[in-house]
Amino acid sequence: MPIIINLDVMLAKRKMRSKELAEIIGITTANLSILKSGKAKAVRFSTLEAICKALECQPADILEYIKE
Amino acid sequence: MKKNKLLSIAIIICKSSKIIYILSLIVFTCFFAHLQIDRDYYKDANIKVNSSDIDVKFSDKWEENSNENVFALNKMTTTAIYSIYFKYSLVIIMMLLITNEFQKIIESVQTLKTFKRNNVISFKKIGIYAFIYFLLTCYTIIDYHEGSKGQLQISFIPLIFMLFAFIMAEIFKEGNVLMEENDLTV
To answer: What are the structural domain ranges in chain B?
Structure first.
């Protein structure tokens, strides 16, 4: 998929663990893992909003479009 | 949905049907074996063959009915008896397999795994079994020592059932895609 999830990068920048983020945004670590690995087929706005709020960033910092 | 009574009843019916099919197969096999051992015992027996069922009666005269095919058992060739045995054994096996797949589907619905890939496969299998059932029941060929008698009788019920099963497989396939998409939405 040409949409890349840069969640790992943002987590590293904020020095936050995946488990911690999952707890803050209220999703399971399994679901966060799906998102990080790029297996997710869709992201809810509510989840995106929670991630942006927790990591203090913009959606564009997490999602990136790369031409195939 | 563990306590859904309708599904539980359906599972009980499926299990009971499976037992009946297995018993029928055993009885039919015993009858066939006995026929091989002591054919004189069946010298007065007539066999009535319909498209999907078989009936043996010990009498010289069968009730007159133009729709029934009545054959004297002792006049049949060994090949004909074997072919009847294998044909109706396969019919019972197909019904057993269809019931088994149907039971699997109901059990998956009960455990809230309705749109799993297994159900798509089960419906496809039911469709194939229904088609085999149709092929087995659409003809009747009885070989006699003097000659043979054949009949082609197309029943649309197994074909409709097959079509229904394949349509259900497609619906469940769509459901499976939607379920996977839903599961992968974070």
So the answer is: 3-185
